[in-house]
Each structure stands twice: as C-alpha cells, then as structure tokens.
Amino acid sequence: MKILYGVQATGNGHFLRSNIIIKELRKKGHNVSIIFSGGDKNSRSRINTLYPDFKPYTYFNGLTFSTDKGKIKYLKTVKDAKLINMYKDIKSFDNEQFDLVITDFEPISSRIAKRKEIPSIGIGHQYAFIFDIPKYKKNPIANTVLRYFAPADYNVGLHWNHFDQPVLPPIINKINIYGKKEIKNKILVYLPWEDNNEVQDFLSCKREYDFHVYSNIDADYEKDNVYWHPFSRKKFLEDLVTSSGVISNAGFEFPSEVLSIGKRLLVKPQIGQTEQLSNAEALKRLDLATTMDYLDKDTLKKWVDSKKNNLEHFIYDVAPIVNWIVNMKWDNIDELMNKYWNNN
Q: Is 18 helix (H, G, I), strand (E, B) or coil?
C-alpha cells in the first residue's frame, strides 16, 4: 500500500507511537510518506536528532495551541493560527495516489484525506475521546476542538482501560529495567508546560529528595536539590529506570511508560487542556496515580511515600494492528480488542 502518515509534532508521545507503527509498516514492504505539523521551533530538531528513521518527511506549520505557564490560551491560539497558509498547504499537497491516510492527531493529513477522498484511520489517544470514557466536561469548546481537530473515517483510540468501549491499550516501546538499581530518593520530573521558576520552588520544599528535571534548556545545571537537564532520550530513560517515582503533566504516552515499569506517579494536568484534565480523571478513577490541580507542595510531601502501581495491558507488538490496517478490516476492531486486552 501507499500510505500517507501524518504526525502531530507537539509531543514526544506522537513521535514514539508513530515511529513504532511506521517501522512495522515499512518492514512489511509498504510505502509510507510522512508529514509533520505543529510544534515549536525545536520540533524539527528533535525529530532529526531522536527519530532519524522518519527522514525524509514534509513539515508544515499546522496548528499549535499557545500556552503560558502551563495554561492553554485559546484566544492567542486563534490569533496565531495561520489558517490561510494551512488551507493552501492542504490544497496544494500532491496526493501521489495514496491508498490510505493514517493520522496521529495531525490535522493537515486528516483534511488531505477528506479533500482527496482517501480513506483515513486515526490512531492515537485523542481518538478514544470519541467514545464513552472518563472526560472532563467543563469546557465544551475544548471538547469540540478535541473531537474535530483531526477527524478520520475510522478511529483507533488508545487508553489505560477499555471502559467497555472499542479502544486499545497504549502503544509503547518496552523499557529494559533489568540490572538497573532504583535509587530511593531520586525523582524524575517532566513538566514541559510549566514555568521553570515555579517548578524549582515547588521541588525545593522536599530537600531530602533529588529531583532530576528535564526541560527546554541548553545545558545541565543544579540548584539546591534540583538537577536540571536538557532533553535527551537516552539519559532521560536512564533516569526514569533508576528513579523511585515520577512527576509529570497528564499526557498519555509518558505516563504509560512510567506505569509499565511500576513507578509511582504524580501528575499535574496542563490548565485548560481537556485531554490532560480527562487523563487525570481517568488515572484517579483507576487508582493509577496521584493528581494535583496545581504545583501543590502538600500533595508532593504526601506523594513521595505513596504506593507504586503497575498496569498490565500495553501494546509492544504492533504487527496485529498493521495486519488489521493492510487487510482493510477497518469496520471491525473486535479482533484487536480480544488480542490486546485478553492476552497481554
């Protein structure tokens, strides 16, 4: 098959999941063309450095939510959006007679599929929200954006539980923890949407712990008991497996990795981000993590002594999903449901 694969460039979760599926599609001989859109000025550099297998690819500005100190600014998002340029990108894109479009919540590929009448499949966490799963319902505008940002003809939603809905477990790479000694007072922190000064103040209240924070900075430095690092996937994973707990925003892919190796987890959803607010609700309902609405020092002090969790269901082998895709069984996801929820 000749496949156009669209990847949202705003987070490592989209990169990781798409990379796993694209590798399997190519291994089976399918021709996959990739487009990215969204993200910030560093997104293209991260793709080139961390995921060289994606090359060659096409990059568009697309749509990116504007944020300030961990809170989404919807008016600024609309103001900054270059919708005319996006429309021109969609209209001028050469469809090269694609058989299928797959989108990981990427809006340009989604609309290319609609415009060129190519069948499309949405694969990602966001597509689970089409179904009856735990949701944060206080922002109908945000819920509408989440539903129609990158629509597809067929939806493969991913979540930590099926909630009696046609969704699959998280797709992740298996993390090797064998031979790695856990350090009791070491905590990994990944709060990319938060203000670094506020994170520093938040973590400094627990001086008997060493916090290793990964952020958008140029070089390592330390202040008090907080060790700051620029993002490096290799070093990040090393600190993950040797830490005794993790503090993060309430995304999907990274908390899934944390839970897959049994680390205790404290999450703070990004303010105004409906997906993250809903994720926090689901983690709380499933008793998989401690949640906080803001950088709450009292919650931190209680959490460091909390129990650890482990989630049983993850997708490490995407071959059945790829077979489902290329065999065009798109109306029936029951076989995948049974495979992944019952046999993992």
A: helix
Amino acid symbol at 43: S
Query: Residue 176: CA atoms inside 13 Å, Cβ hemisphere, count?
Result: 3
DSSP state of 53: G
Query: Residues with Cβ < 8 Å from 325, sequence gap 6 or more?
Result: 25, 100, 102, 121
- What tens digit of pLDDT does each residue of 214-253 get? 998 989 999 999 999 998 888 999 999 999 999 999 999 9
Residue span of the structural domain in which 259 resides: 186-303
Residue 178 lies in a domain: no
Structure tokens at 63: 């749509």
The CB density around residue 298, as the number of other CB atoms within 10 Å, is 9
Both 38 and 139 in one domain: the answer is yes
Please check whether residues 92 and 190 belong to one and the same domain: no
Which residue type sits at 104?
A: D
180 within a domain of the structure (yes/no)? no
Q: What's at 13, amino acid-wise?
A: G
Whether omega before 169 lies within 30 degrees of 0, making that bond cis, reads no
Q: Rounded to two decimals, what is the model's pTM?
A: 0.88
